[in-house]
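Re: your question from the hallway

Yes, I did run it. Sequences:
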Amino acid sequence: MRDLESRTAERRFLFPFTGKAVAPAPVWLMRQAGRYLPEYRKVRAQAGSFLKLCYSPELAAEVTLQPIRRFGFDAAILFSDILVVPDALGQTVRFEEGEGPRLDPIRALDDLGRLALSKTGAKFSLVCETVARLRQDLPRETALIGFCGAPWTVATYVVEGRGSADQSAARHWAYRDPQGFSQLVELLTDASIEYLSGQVRAGADALQIFDSWAGSLADDQFERWVIAPTAKIVQAMRARHPGVPIIGFPRGASAMLTRYIEATGVDGVSCDTSCPLGVMQKKARSGTVVQGNLDPLLLLTGGDALDRRVEEICASMNGLPFVFNLGHGIVPDTPPENVARVVERLRAKG
Amino acid sequence: MRDLESRTAERRFLFPFTGKAVAPAPVWLMRQAGRYLPEYRKVRAQAGSFLKLCYSPELAAEVTLQPIRRFGFDAAILFSDILVVPDALGQTVRFEEGEGPRLDPIRALDDLGRLALSKTGAKFSLVCETVARLRQDLPRETALIGFCGAPWTVATYVVEGRGSADQSAARHWAYRDPQGFSQLVELLTDASIEYLSGQVRAGADALQIFDSWAGSLADDQFERWVIAPTAKIVQAMRARHPGVPIIGFPRGASAMLTRYIEATGVDGVSCDTSCPLGVMQKKARSGTVVQGNLDPLLLLTGGDALDRRVEEICASMNGLPFVFNLGHGIVPDTPPENVARVVERLRAKG
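Structure:
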């Protein structure tokens, strides 16, 4: 692994994390590798299933690289899925076309025996192999972001067996039997630490923790199921891999952002579309790297509406530690030209 | 219509809106009339369809009264649905069992001709008849809350034709053609004003505006589609019915709460489950009546977990202008005993 300082020096994405002002702002987009790209759809078809794609280092690396070739983003994000962790732990995950993930739900402590940290080796290794390939194949100036789902968000799928509107199965278990539920969350936390650590060892420059369902919890539950496990992951990464920036994405929890930053120790926060620019500004002013938060629908709309909002976001975050991104993932119908347009406009600010 | 002051004097729910401290806090629960009550299911079966129940003054009044008889809440909320407005405007709404609402979607300006304010009379009158019956049948000490969906939230159903995870159809139209979309929102705003005004004339003591999908909008869109129409409704109500308290419920938008309160002029805000108690405290300290925000799932769980959280919420809001409520509606599996338990515990604080 190359020396951290020298990596940072050549990768603009990492500048804001050292407190350096950087103009134009570095840019990458959540789900920048994906169905909106025809070259992705080709590889996806070749892979067979979605999870097979995640576990094929050559193909996963290829789709990770595609948007870098097209748009020259400042960071690539490992192509994978947050459900790799429960899948590797032994809870078989299936992706049904157009239906989203399906898992045999784990609803109570008795079911937890189906999962074991000892099972994760083979699948985690495949993902780390993708990371290692990527670090070799990426341009020197492109940072590589590794990631995992936050334990809370992954738990919602583990317990519900699928996506859900209000995560009620997991939330209800957490109320009914907090001790039992905490065993699930701890297992996911420990697995996430191993998983992220493997990604860093394989060459990831930074990490993002996706907590897509952080916004459904009351504040006391947020402390216990979002903040505590995230803080544990951050502490473990600090101890094992000092200097690797960690970005948290507690989606839908803008009202808890200050507490989240202080209590988890993340270096940066990714802000969802609904996070007010004023809140982002405030956080960035107090030294946290802020990422966000263009509405992905504006990439569908294009034109003046898109340009105007890009302008507004950049003006708000000007001179602050900021990474331009979306507030949520790119949607499949997005015209790639609109993505190119945003990158061009950002770069023109240099 | 009786004099406002004398009504306020005898209805504890209204006290916090006059700046009076009140212990124990007044209490009502969102969806307190509903499927968790066996007596509701009986009337619901008798009515045939869900919307027929909304449009049958006798039956709608009966189900509104049921939870008052059982639990003695400080306020009754008119039994109706936020989609009465588009239904009355001419966009036929169907409720399919276990499937949620279905509407023939209005996706662009050309479709808007299907809706007209002039059509609303008959259906709005039926709802107002329910209100008038209720004001006669309710105990003198029970306040009656009228309501509507906020124009933004109703528009998401009008455009999507059903509930959706991210309200993308409406959000996309708003980006693509803000002028056209604003015509829809204005029509819904004007209809809501007539609808609420009719409810106040028929005897509603207070109003709540439900903006369930306020949390999916970027801040600039929030200004235009949440704040502006809500402010217009509040201004119109102030002019027509001074002194009738208005509560806004911008669900999922806790990070925009300060702006929402200042810019709309609502007297109170209902806070969803994820709103931190610290934020609620702050708003109440600056004089806004705050309602909330017990997690409805705790009414399923019951026991110590329920008691503890009720205690925490009350302790946070002690001495402040506060109405105890849920952060979202009661879920159908809720044991009525748990509702009774909460009301008893609150009253024991008197």
